[in-house]
Design a protein that fits this description.
Four copies of one chain form a homotetramer. With 279 residues, chain A is mainly α. Helices cover 69% and strands 0% of the residues of chain A. In chain A, helix 2 runs antiparallel to helix 3 and helix 3 packs across helix 5. Chain A starts with a helix and ends in a 30-residue tail after the last helix.
């Protein structure tokens, strides 16, 4: 009896390992195939959510869409439980970024039984597409993403300062435009004017609100040229950061053991100053 | 009698110091709490000015908004006098940037008794939000802001030259478009054409004025591609400046022990100013 | 008889060589003249395709346009066969990039006999304008284009990662805007919302769809400032890459006499690949 | 008699020199004052041309504007002849850039007697505002402008290649959009589609023409993201160039006479490699 239990436990362990390899693994063919199929289904499920909101398509294919949606939801639910079962630390998975995304991806469909209009929430499953980076790990996609993230992180303080300034400028210029322009041209309140100011500063320029008085146009021109100059700032910050991190990457090669000078490239085999062989 | 006065003076001095620490200080818990509360109230007061201009909200909550506005104004007035009293050099504060902002933040409400439509001026209190940088001093926000300011200052001449060129180009191209396009498409005068030209060059593109003739569209396409190339210039200037100031900071080599000047590279072995050997 | 054949063959060979020099050559005056004339005719033929779609012009000059189109098509057909005959490896030309373009440039006219509305396809002959680079080879246009291509190629992975993120962000924010905004303001479905989100993030801002609710405008402002920051990323990537490739080219130091590899700095005294002393 | 002539000639010479110093000179107070007054009058005359096209202003102040225009034209004519007389090489001035601009600035008014609607040409006098750089020479405006010009000149070939590619892409994508979209949405001909494509690629986005079909919106999204990536290219080119010219400026200091290493700054007084004093 004890033995059977052991065997059962072992059999379960082996099964769990197998599932683990297929679901969590990337390096095995089975794991890779599973990831690719999953990615395709996620893409399909995101498409379904999008298409359901298009009136013409929803009218014609309503039933098919609903069935497809339920099939995918049940598949995702099954996958979610498999993921929990197969890992040794279920709680770690459940409360991880991907675990929460996986849960939010399936919940809305079940919720839609009780609370209407919650189905739209399942669009967050688009975040599951971030798995692509894990799957395409073979290339150095992840490395590139990390590098970008580092550069952005390093520039974060500067960009925060910058955005803060932009907001204060928008409030002030928005108030000025509200006073200058009449409500007929769309500047009905200061918040609307601030919205217009951000639309203009960022060079988006919808045109739903546009100055009509001469003074308003003059101030708007000033704001645009200001925005023109301002757009240079975050670009400059991020560029300098990326160029910097690029330079830093070169330094991973060890220094010359003879003259201690820095090698000029990661693949340098001889010191460029004294000719000593680098190891 | 003299002694009492002295004691009084001392008591007043101590009170002034206490207030000074709370209002002007950042490093004590009380001063920090005060700054945070103040920041919240400033934010609230800016929101009030914005919301008063939204018709629906003003209609429904008119009385509440007015009362809140007065409460805040009186609080700000009280704070303004406390600031004057608590500092040893009141005039220096009054005529400082923040002192003037603080005054302009409260005056409009009192002015609105005598002159209508001046209340809107109190939106300048948004500038008081710049205090945030002082409060968040713990991080290196101020340092970052200074760095940005230095980079922008260093690029100022180049950017001025650039803006001047943009203005002359806009006048010339604006006149050309005025001749080419008919008034029906919105090009009613040269100033309006110049406004359109700036809207186009800065890639804002409202669409309130847009060319309709073939030649006009052709010239507009030329202006857009020109603007595309032109936008690269300020970006290039600021980026080169930021990257430059970054490079200067990167030097971890110690300063010269003789003349204290910064070494120009990490691998400098001799001070480039006085020739002292660096260790 | 055999001799005559030989002579004939030789005569044909010489003719082929002559044609080859004129058509494929760039360095001879005749070849250059041919290329310039060809470029002019290609430009003319592209103009014809464009003008045919302008209603007013098509109405007035319909017959002239058709005749001109046929003259050019026959000229191109003739040129195509000359190119095949004159080269020693006809298949290599036929399946090359330019060979396929040359074929697609003439086919649509003949196809338009059997299948209507295929004539528009002949617009691909615009791609033949890329020959300009070969003709202007005297300057270093090709070198510049190659450098640009290399810089873009090197940044490709980073830009792919970036575009992928932009797409996921657009899907999520598009869904949010669909929920927040009513269909009256143009957000009729999630795909439309995603389209709007891309229009906003890229700072194009048509204004055909624009938020009208307060919350929608607030989220839109957030998206714009986000896009403002995001636009800095590809710029930073490409700039760092171009600056990098520029630094690499700057080296005027001679290549290693032993292994012919490029020295990594102007002041390199030893080859970093094989350790040979550089003179 | 001869003497009188000599004296006369001398007197004329002295007068010419005086005028020369005032008109062409910058360094004397009189010359500077003249330039400032001239700049003000040029600015005024440009304003006049602009204001004449504004209907309301022209109606009310028609006579004043005409008189002012004539006063300024006569003043400019007088100044033009003084410039010719005062210089030793009149032809050199007449056919110089500024000489031609000066002539074109006054001709249109006289021409307007014979040919109507030529008065608008006098807007070219805006180009005379470029003199500002000469006047403000005291600062290093000219140096900055020259630096910008050099950076742009050096990037010219790359930018030409780039603009050429953008044009070919616009033709191809414009044709695609013409086929995909119906004329109702504004895509009435291929040239119009190309215009729309340039408006979109440069992120201007008027919105006068915008896709309405799903496929059209999809292609438009692709074009926008493409434009997003493309805008990075000229920015990268110019930035790398400016950063480069900044680096090159450092190299004007002579190399170390002992070890021949490059000084790291223009104001370096000692070689940072071997400590030798730089002369």
């Amino acid at each position: 009896m004890v033995k059977t239990k052991n065997i059962n436990k072992n059999a379960f362990d082996i099964l769990r390992q197998r599932i683990n390899i297929i679901i969590h693994g990337v390096n095995t063919p089975a794991g890779k195939l599973f990831d690719l199929v999953l990615l395709f289904i996620i893409l399909l499920s995101v498409m379904l959510v999008l298409l359901e909101t298009v009136e013409n398509i929803d009218k014609r294919f309503h039933d098919i869409l609903i069935v497809a949606e339920w099939v995918i939801t049940i598949f995702f639910t099954f996958e979610y439980f498999l993921r929990i079962i197969s890992t040794r630390k279920p709680l770690q998975y459940i409360f991880s970024f991907y675990g929460l995304i996986d849960l939010i991806s399936i919940l809305p469909m079940y919720l839609s039984f009780f609370i209407p209009n919650t189905k739209i929430l399942s669009v967050v499953r688009a975040l599951r597409l971030l798995r692509l980076f894990r799957i395409l790990n073979l290339g150095n996609f992840t490395g590139q993403a990390t590098e970008l993230k580092l550069a952005l992180n390093a520039s974060r303080t500067k960009i925060t300062v910058f955005v803060y300034f932009v907001c204060i400028i928008s409030v002030l210029l928005g108030a000025v435009m509200y006073v200058v322009e009449s409500p007929e041209s769309g500047f009905t309140s200061i918040p609307t004017s601030i919205y217009w100011c951000i639309v203009t500063l960022t060079t988006v320029g919808y045109g739903d609100i546009a100055p009509i008085t001469t003074l308003g146009k003059f101030i708007a021109s000033f704001i645009m040229i200001l925005g023109y100059g301002i757009i240079a700032v975050p670009t400059g910050i991020v560029t300098a950061q990326i160029a910097n991190s690029k330079n830093k990457r070169k330094l991973f090669a060890p220094n010359c053991p003879n003259c201690n000078s820095q090698p000029l490239a990661d693949d340098a085999r001889y010191c460029s100053k004294c000719g000593t062989k680098l190891t």
